[in-house]
Design goal:
This protein is α/β, with parallel strands linked by helices. It contains 22 helices and 20 strands. Strands 10-11-9-12-13-8-14 form a 7-stranded parallel sheet, with helices on both faces. The two termini are 31 Å apart. Bound molecules: adenosine-5'-diphosphate and magnesium ion.
Length: 684
């Protein structure tokens, strides 16, 4: 028996159980050894039965005084057992495990856990059993609780984990160098794993967790560090930076750059001037003026004779960037071309394409665009792409410079993970002349007053967004068919809701104005047409799903109504709100919400309190956890076994520092560890 063998060969695991385990991502014995409890039951102090009260969770210990198996009318099996101790007795109930009736005998001692409640039948106290074991007198006191699935019982899971540890724990190699363990105060891996599964006391758990959390972060950061080092050693393009031509271009702009823009531009130009490839993340809140900075970078690349690929997360945004950049760059050497699914057929590039700035969605890199001199890749809202795509992209060109732009105010801990191989620049200042948006909460019964306000603003010549919830566009590209189906259904429901809302507003509320509808299932040209009409003021009120999420720039839109605001995450609400407040006029955001949970309340309150994207992102991250942060599975965040980038931010920072240090001081060791451990990393 070795650690790399299939779990099927473990005692107590057959083909059937192996299949069930596979659903949990457990295929080898090693997977099983690294499958950790989500929590523990402390059975070191157990209440006498007479002290039990209704509770979600209790431990009960007693002797069987009666066994009563039953079959309900619809052939559902129920087993009821009376358990007694010196203080009293309680009924224990098992559903749908008929085989247990053969096991239980009068006089047998059990320890069990479950929900304690009053029975419907006679209002006596009963326990609905979640897990049980025979009380042998030397049962473990701290019981691990594993995430389980249909057909896998807690006791079985504990048994096979025990079996795996007994047979194969010795195969686990502690890959951390002694001096790192000593300096960071970490226990050895074998002890940590064993303790995390079967701790002797609750107080042992934290040391064990610390080691495994450190490992999770350390290995990932090592990968990022090696990746960063590799990029820095590639031969990239050392661009000539012609300050004069940049200046004469800047002079054509209707504004001067803010000092924050100047600063990040200096970072970018300095990277571009170096012979190593740039790998930089440009972060800045919506409307902070990132696009213009990226445009200047593109200009430098083109002036040096290279091509640029500019990728946006959706077609609408690609189109908008195209329009904006084409206008901005008129009179320069830059020739732009839009590459979207609707333009693709016509523009599949001929051999000698003179275009030097290609704008499209992420498909740009998948299609056979003839990049023979790709020198710069600009990726807008990179978190929708993910680590692997980024690699594919870099492979395509002559190791081009990469500039990732994001309006998502990614909290630091997240940035260190998601963009740990990037250098980072932040635009932390808004262009002058903006009036902060006023945000109001509108309970359902005040909806009318919001409509009256809208009517007044439209009469003044301003425009309105109405946003209905929907899962984000990019979730369509999902590899898991069942998720894809679910999302598909959700999307259709969301679109239906937006359609209904648009029809209702048009017919019942604003017959005198033009209400438009925008959603992700419209064809590219159709979307384009609607956006154009909206930006020309021909549509007064635009009802939309979240396709307007990022980057849309229509300064005359000053009112946004967000329907079901409680369903959106905070980061997304903030992104949406960033579509207004882009001009000099006062803008207003109305959150129509049914506040059902504390969390929804916190979210809405945060939106009323703050317009600071970083602050809101921190709150959101705390509320929802990293997995759900972007509302998308495409985030490229690793699936850590034990670690959590928010809760364990301190360890993350330490592990990152140690990993970067190791890459710098002992490359061979860093590579060896990475090669031996990399397969343990699973990306979401
Ligand atoms: P972002 O890409 O960060 O969301 P944009 O680059 O689209 O922001 O800029 C938002 C708006 O602000 C645009 O209309 C742009 O022309 C304008 N803008 C950008 N930089 C400045 C500046 N320094 N001063 C005034 N307006 C600016
Ligand atoms: Mg932008």
């Amino acid at each position: 028996m070795t650690i790399i063998m299939s779990v099927q060969y473990l005692k107590g695991v057959g083909p059937k159980l192996a299949k069930i385990l596979k659903k949990l991502g457990v295929e080898t014995v090693e997977d099983l050894i690294y499958y950790f409890p989500r929590d523990y039951e402390d059975r070191s102090h157990i209440k006498p039965i007479s002290d039990l009260r209704p509770a979600n969770f209790e431990i009960v210990k007693g002797q069987i005084s009666q066994v009563n198996p039953q079959l309900t009318r619809n052939r559902f099996s129920v087993i009821k057992v009376i358990l007694s101790d010196l203080s009293g007795s309680i009924q224990a109930v098992w559903f749908n495990q008929p085989f247990l009736s053969r096991l239980f005998r009068k006089g047998m001692r059990l320890i069990l856990s479950g929900r304690v409640e009053y029975s419907d039948f006679d209002k006596s106290l009963q326990v609905i059993v979640r897990d049980f074991e025979v009380d042998t007198g030397d049962n473990i006191k701290i019981v691990p609780l594993y995430p389980l699935t249909q057909g896998l019982y807690p006791k079985k899971m504990r048994g096979i984990i025990r079996e795996a540890l007994d047979n194969c724990l010795a195969d686990v190699v502690d890959f951390l160098p002694e001096d790192i363990k000593r300096k960071e105060g970490l226990i050895d891996l074998e002890t940590a794993i064993k303790t995390l599964h079967f701790p002797n006391s609750m107080s042992d758990i934290s040391e064990a967790r610390k080691r495994l959390i450190f490992d999770d972060f350390f290995v990932f950061q090592l990968g990022l560090g090696l990746c960063k080092r590799k990029i820095k050693r590639e031969k990239g393009i050392a661009y000539q930076i012609d300050q004069k031509s940049l200046k004469s271009f800047s002079d054509t702009l209707p504004f001067t750059l803010t000092s924050a823009q100047e600063q990040v531009l200096a970072d970018i130009l300095s990277d571009m001037g170096k012979p190593q490839p740039m790998n930089r993340l440009l972060q800045g809140d919506v409307g902070s003026g990132k696009t213009i900075v990226a445009t200047l970078a593109a200009l430098v690349a083109v002036n040096n004779g290279y091509q640029v690929a500019f990728m946006a997360p959706t077609e609408i945004l690609a189109q908008q960037h195209y329009t904006k950049l084409t206008k901005l760059l008129k009179g320069s050497k830059v020739t732009t071309k839009l590459m979207t699914s609707s333009t693709k057929k016509r523009t599949t590039s001929s051999k000698k394409d003179i275009t030097n700035l290609f704008i499209g969605t992420h498909r740009l890199i998948q299609e056979k665009v003839n990049f023979d001199r790709l020198g710069l890749v600009i990726i807008d809202e990179q978190h929708r792409f993910g680590v692997l795509q980024r690699k594919a992209l870099v492979k395509k060109g002559l190791s081009p410079d990469v500039l990732a732009i994001t309006a998502t105010p990614i909290p630091r801990s997240m940035a260190l993970t998601l963009y740990g191989d990037f250098d980072r620049s932040v635009i932390d200042e808004m262009p002058p002349g903006r009036t902060p948006i006023k945000t109001h909460f509108v309970p359902e019964n005040r909806r009318r007053s919001a409509y009256e306000f809208m009517r007044q603003k439209v009469a003044e010549g301003q425009q309105v967004f109405v946003v209905c919830p929907l899962v984000s566009e990019s979730e369509k590209i999902d590899f898991n068919p069942s998720t894809a189906l679910r999302i598909d259904a959700e999307q259709r429901r969301g679109i239906k809701a937006a359609m209904d809302e648009a029809a209702r507003l048009q017919k019942e509320i604003f017959p005198e104005y033009r209400v438009g509808l925008l959603h992700g299932r419209l064809k590219g040209e159709e979307k384009d047409r609607i956006m154009k009409q909206f930006s020309q003021g021909k549509i007064h009120i635009l009802v939309s799903t979240t396709v307007i999420e990022v980057g849309i720039d229509i300064p005359n839109a000053t009112v946004m109504v967000i329907e079901h605001a409680e369903r959106f995450g905070l980061a997304q609400l903030h992104q949406l709100r960033g579509r207004i407040g882009r001009g000099s006029k006062q803008s207003f955001c109305f959150l129509i919400a049914k506040i059902a949970s504390e969390e929804a309340k916190t979210r809405v309150k945060a939106m009323l309190d703050s317009v600071d994207g970083f602050y809101l992102a921190e709150v959101d991250l705390k509320l929802r956890g990293p997995g759900d942060f972007y509302g998308t599975r495409q985030s490229g965040l690793p699936n850590f076994r034990v670690a959590d980038i928010i809760r364990d931010e301190k360890v993350l920072k330490a592990a990152r520092a140690v990993a970067m240090d190791l890459v710098a001081t002992d490359l061979e060791c860093a590579c060896n560890i990475w090669e031996s451990q990399r397969k343990k990393i699973k990306l979401t």
